[in-house]
Amino acid sequence: MSDSRLDSALRESFEVTIETMAFEQAFPLDETPDDWQNTNCIHTTIHIEEPLEGTLILIASKQCAEEIAMNIVGPPEDDSPIGDSMIADTLGEIMNTVAGRLMQKLLEGSSDFTLSLPESTFGDCPEIEKEFLVQYYQLADFAIKMVALGSGFETLE
Amino acid sequence: MNRKILIVDDSTTARMFIRRCFEIAGCWDVEFLEAADGKEGLEQAKKHNVELIVTDLNMPNMDGTSFLRRAKGSPRLNPVPVIVITSLKNEEKVRELLDLGAEDVLSKPITPTDVLETLQKIPGWGDSEEQ
């Protein structure tokens, strides 16, 4: 799986998006990090609706998501913690950008495609069934998980 | 009086990021206005004397394509250059947007260099430092 088109295109899309928007380098990890936890997370989902059906989910700890949002939008003027809605908005914009870049690469820029609006949820991450591809990244002091699922991706392999 | 740029995107993060890219590209003596969808964008554009519009495509209520079509169909807004910044870029979509009157179509994530190169192609915005 690690040599697949989807794997390399998704990795490139995520790395470029994070580097360009958050000025951070995302390093791919070969294995599930030992300290990975599905609790107190934010999971952001975006659906690819045409020309294939697929879903991308980004899972990060709340602290990691706060750091990313802070890097992109800066701290609030009154030094208060960055709000959940801004964190959700930031991760949504990242996933919108990642999904778009991924589809441009997979379709080689020649075909139309549509994306849903991203949705973010805070809390413990639910069990995800039928994961087609799972990637982990190290982002500064944090691990972050990217999941691709959906029958549409299988047709690309 | 400062020139006005309207940024239309449903994401607050995207609007802040786009604004920062324009500032780094030299647009610091500019007033930035914001709208969260095409409908609000049209209202803002008509209310204020905007000189440049930057819009996303994938938005609720009124998407960027409809917004562009409406803006270019309005005698008042027709001359205002519109830059589309989208994650939905492909050859077909670019052709459609350029045919509708978009000045340029940029792919997310944009960089200040992308903005600078696009501004250089737009009459009156070529050297942002001198605006």
Give a verbal description of the structure.
The complex is a heterodimer of chains A (157) and B (131). Chain A has 157 residues and is of the alpha+beta class. Chain A has helices spanning 5-22, 62-73, 84-106, 151-154, and strands at residues 26-29, 41-50, 54-61, 114-115, 119-123, 131-139, 142-149. In chain A, strands 1, 2, 3, 4, 5, 6 and 7 form a seven-stranded antiparallel β-sheet that branches. In chain A, strand 2 (41-50) and strand 3 (54-61) form a beta hairpin. The longest helix of chain A is centred in the middle third of the chain and has 23 residues, at 84-106. Chain B has 131 residues and is of the alpha/beta class. Chain B has helices spanning 12-24, 38-47, 64-73, 91-100, 112-120, and strands spanning 3-8, 30-35, 52-55, 82-86, 104-107. Chain B has a five-stranded parallel β-sheet, sandwiched between helices. In chain B, strand 3 (52-55), helix 3 and strand 4 form a beta-alpha-beta unit. Chain B starts with a strand and ends in an 11-residue tail after the last helix. The mean pLDDT of chain B is 92. Classes of the chains: A alpha+beta (157), B alpha/beta (131).
- Category from helices, strands and their pairing of chain A: alpha+beta
What average pLDDT do the residues of chain A reach?
A: 89
Query: How big is the Rg of chain A?
Result: 15 Å
Helix content of chain A: 25-40%
Q: What is the tally of helical segments of chain A?
A: 4
From the N-terminal CA to the C-terminal CA of chain B, the straight-line distance is 11 Å
Instruction: Write out the strand line-up for the largest beta sheet of chain B, numbering strands in chain order.
Output: 2-1-3-4-5
Number of helices of chain B: 5
Largest sheet of chain B: 5 strands, parallel
Shape of chain B: globular
Q: In percent, how helical is the residue content of chain B? A: 25-40%
The secondary-structure element order of chain B is EHEHEHEHEH
Distance between the termini of chain A: 9 Å
Going by helix content, strand content and strand pairing, the class of chain B is alpha/beta
Mean pLDDT across the residues of chain B is: 92
